[in-house]
Amino acid sequence: MNRTDFDEFVQRQHTKQQKEKELDPKKKLRDWLEHLGSLYSQIKKFMKSYLDSGDAKIEFRKIQLNEEFIGLYDADQLVLTIGRSVVTFTPIGTMLIGLKGRVDVQGARGQARLSLVNKQVNSAHQLIRVTVSVAGEAKKKSSSPDEIKEIEWTWKIFTAPPQMKFIDLTQEAFFDMILSIADA
Q1: How many domains does the chain have?
Q2: Would you list the DSSP string of 12-80?
Q3: Which has more pLDDT, 89 or 123?
Q4: Is 54 left (phi over 0), alpha (psi -120 to 50) or beta?
Q5: What is the distance between the alpha carbons of residues 131 and 155, in angstroms, rounded to a whole number?
Q6: What is the pTM assigned to this prediction?
Q7: Which of 41, 81, 126, 163 is the one with CA 20 to 30 A from 10?
Q8: Is residue 154 part of a domain?
Q9: In a 10 Å sphere around its CB, with 0-12 CB exposed, 13-18 middle and 19+ buried, how is residue 67 labelled?
Q10: Which are the contacts of 40, defined by CB distance < 8 A and separation ≥ 6?
């Protein structure tokens, strides 16, 4: 065995240890609920002038979610009322492939989806990575410039198929989303 083999062994052990930490269900739940709270704070900021004037109101309802590895827990559903239009923001969960969380947004005319995703991701195809190896050949280290060391999670609007893009959640994009699904 040479030094490179041992270095790779140490790195694999470190990676396994990191993954085990990530799978802590209590920590995953705490992180998810914090991210959900930050989304709701962002919505309140977007709607501040309308909330202050009384043209809109926000209320929260407790809902129960049940996810594999986390179990049963309570989360807040945000209900945004603008005049007669009601838009609900319902958390779906955190145990999703490629995403750290999802919230479904429902209005009288349709629905939208908010996803907690890597800030650098702009389309669904970026969430998929295919690696091919040949038995007996040494593994080559990837030197891809877009390889991500640490993920910065952010809320984005996830568009419907076939395009399936992630749009940054700005105030303008948020208002466009509400207009597209609310009873206008």
Answers
A1: 1
A2: HHHHHHHHHHHT-HHHHHHHHHHHHHHHHHHHHHHHHHHHHHTSEEEEEEEEEEEETTTEEEEEEEEEE
A3: 89
A4: left
A5: 28
A6: 0.76
A7: 126
A8: yes
A9: middle
A10: 60, 76, 78, 89
The answer as to whether 18 is a domain residue is: no
Q: Please classify residue 131 by burial: count the beta carbons closer than 10 Å to its beta carbon, then call 0-12 exposed, 13-18 middle and 19+ buried.
A: exposed
Residues 6 or more apart in contact with residue 33 via CB below 8 angstroms: 75
Specify if 144 maps to a domain.
no
The string of pLDDT tens digits covering residues 119-154 is 887 655 555 555 666 766 666 555 454 554 688 899
Q: Which two tokens stand for residue 14?
A: 């470190």
| 79: β partners | 59, 88
Do residues 164 and 91 make contact, with C-beta atoms less than 8 angstroms apart? Answer: no
The domain of 83 spans: 25-127+150-181
Query: Residue 56: inside a domain, yes or no?
Result: yes
